[in-house]
What does this fold into?
Amino acid sequence: MIPTVTTERLTLRAPQMADHDAFVRFYASPRSIDVGGPFDVAGAYRQLAAVAGHWLLAGFGWWVIEHEEKPAGFAGIHHPPHKSGRELGWVLFDGFEGKGLALEAARAARDWGYAHLPRAPLASFIIRGNTRSEKLAERLGARNVGTAPHNEKADIWLHPEVPAS
It folds into this structure.
């Protein structure tokens, strides 16, 4: 079962079929390039299914970020086999940027991970030049430690063992 995490303004919840249209819009846009897109409708469905499926396979994963009863993006911790470690990640859909929602969601996901998962390094793999995500990682206390082994365009932002506020 996928847990629900609530913050002051957000609900991090399990993905639902009702989120499919939001995934289709996001993955059809150029903004999805940094996360493997763009994808057609079938590809967007596979991404939604992967978000849900990681929980089944690993016992942790990405949540859909719900803000004002709308899917606003996704955030959480995952570790697919092609990545060198657990990743704390976040994505906001169009119209939800610039409100501090990604920071709020990432902090909640990180804190849940530190409380519920065995201790292991936690990193964010950020495409170089994605200044918003780089600044968010810094606000979470992460530091850039070099190029990600699975993607030469991304840097590894290593999060502290004891989370910053």
The helical segments are 20-28, 41-58, 101-116, 131-139. The first strand starts at residue 5 and ends at 6. The chain is about 30% helix and 30% strand. The mean pLDDT is 95.
